[in-house]
Amino acid sequence: MRRITFDLDVLRTFSTGVELGSFAKAADRLGRSTSAVSAQLKKLEQQAETPIFVKAGRGLALTDAGETMLAYARRLLDLNDEAATAIHGTDLEGWVRLGLQEDFGETILPEVLGQFARAHPKVRIEARVARNTELIDRVTSGRLDLALAWSDGAVTPHCEHVTNVPMCWVGPAGEPRTWQASGEEPLPLASLEAPCLLRTAATTALDRAGIPWRLAFISPSLAGLWAATAAGLGVTIRTPIGLPASVQPLVPAESGLPALPSLGLVLHRSEAQSEPATARLAAIMLQAVHNSIPGF
């Protein structure tokens, strides 16, 4: 097979266009003309020697090869940017205190810590995995520099909305099951201890749909919640992020459960102007979130 060396500049244009949902917007963000972007995309298809795009109405959609290319493009660009940061950021020093929701503890945290430590070995990180209320309290009191938390409507002095993540009903892995309660049998719910934003969202959706429910299992930890859900003690509600193989999202139309809204994700900072090490860690974390959420 002929060895192909993909152009990183072309891959960045490709990735940015897909991310923004428009290559015209990508041209504007990257400071290029639309004709230059079109030429880059044509070059990418020529290098790949297979169609990357297919017509979809008035726009373009990715082919199977295009989806594969996008995944590799993001990995190559992440590695390129990490290398550039490592070369120019080796002098960063200090201490950064980071807080995360449990949902991100096993998915985003290892990636973030590994990438940051490789690029900035002189910076020490203290990471804390906790619930929303504790994370926000620690940021506002100055005991955390950064915290990635679900939005409960609370606004801290230095926070930014990251994205909205869809919530979903979650049941044991395997064959789909109709969970809607009937007769005198209320729907069994597995939940984290109160206060819990997702538990409130679940009960509110069920009440509006007129579906009776009962709390069948309450856990102080996400690990306990997954164990109960996998065992079939009840359904729970989370986001698609970090779901273990023992559980699966349930499709509302097939499970008999009501549709759910999205949940805001917010990055809280303790200071308006972060120290360089803190700012760099925030950037790496937001990129990791970007990679973990489809469509973000």
Automatic annotation (TrEMBL):
InterPro entries: LTTR, LysR_HTH_N, LysR_subst-bd, WH-like_DNA-bd_sf, WH_DNA-bd_sf
Domain spans labelled HTH lysR-type: 6-63
Keyword Nucleotide-binding assigned: no
Keywords: DNA-binding, Transcription, Transcription regulation
Gene Ontology MF term list: DNA binding; DNA-binding transcription factor activity
A Pfam entry, by short name: LysR_substrate
Chain coiled-coil ranges: none
Keyword set includes DNA-binding: yes
Similarity comment text for this entry: Belongs to the LysR transcriptional regulatory family.
Name of the molecule in the record: LysR family transcriptional regulator
